[in-house]
Design a protein that fits this description.
single chain, about 70 residues
Length: about 70
Amino acid sequence: MSTDELTRWYESYGALVHRRCRTLMGNDADANDALQETFMRAHRHRRDDVKQPLPWLYAIATRICF
């Protein structure tokens, strides 16, 4: 996954992932940290075979929040 692709994912799915994190964490500050960690892990563990990024990002975010 290129940095450009990750940027596109963030622009497309960042708000949705943040909403999920906020729901699970209960506040914006922790949700912001979880969102950042989600995209850092997505970049660190790049997978070129991800056809639907949102469910994959939700799975990462959920693990971080719990």
